[in-house]
Amino acid sequence: MKSVEILMAEDSPSDAELAREALKNGMLDISMNVVTDGEEALNYLFRRGQYKDAKRPDLILLDINMPKISGLEVLAEIKRDDDLKRIPVVILTTSEDERDIAKSYEHYAACFITKPVNFQSFQEIVGQLKSFWFTIVTLPPKTNN
């Protein structure tokens, strides 16, 4: 069974739990770690403090409306780092603002998805993300870092 690491930066506990449930089903061994603000996301990715032993994610699900440090700032930091920049970042947010969409792509987001307000639709989208990123797409190899 293929093993996959996901980091989800999401300040809504209910959205994080819905995503976790949607990712459970299938032929993949998915480990999803959730951080609740932008500062925590960067600490996880750069393995600082309590995250010194964190596993490098294969995919990052990033909300742009995050406390402390915005998701767009987190995305910019990820894409500036030689090791992290290869990790696909999926923006998963409530924003429909064209400026947020443009900024996300300017900072090399893999895609931008506006969260549906309906719980069932949200779970369906996460299920489709799982299918696309872990069945269809070939992800970059992990580095030794």
- What is the H/E order? EHEHEHEHEH
Question: In order across it, which strands form the biggest sheet?
Answer: 2-1-3-4-5
Total number of beta strands: 5
Specify the biggest β-sheet: 5 strands, parallel
Instruction: Extract low-pLDDT stretches.
Output: none
Query: Can you tell me the CATH class?
Result: Alpha Beta
Provide an overview of this structure.
- With 145 residues, the protein is α/β, with parallel strands linked by helices.
- It has a single domain (2-133), classed as 3-Layer(aba) Sandwich (Rossmann fold), CATH 3.40.50.
- It has helices at 13-24, 38-45, 71-80, 98-106, 119-136; strands at residues 2-9, 28-35, 59-62, 89-93, 111-114.
- Strands 2-1-3-4-5 form a five-stranded parallel β-sheet, sandwiched between helices.
- Strand 3, helix 3 and strand 4 form a beta-alpha-beta unit.
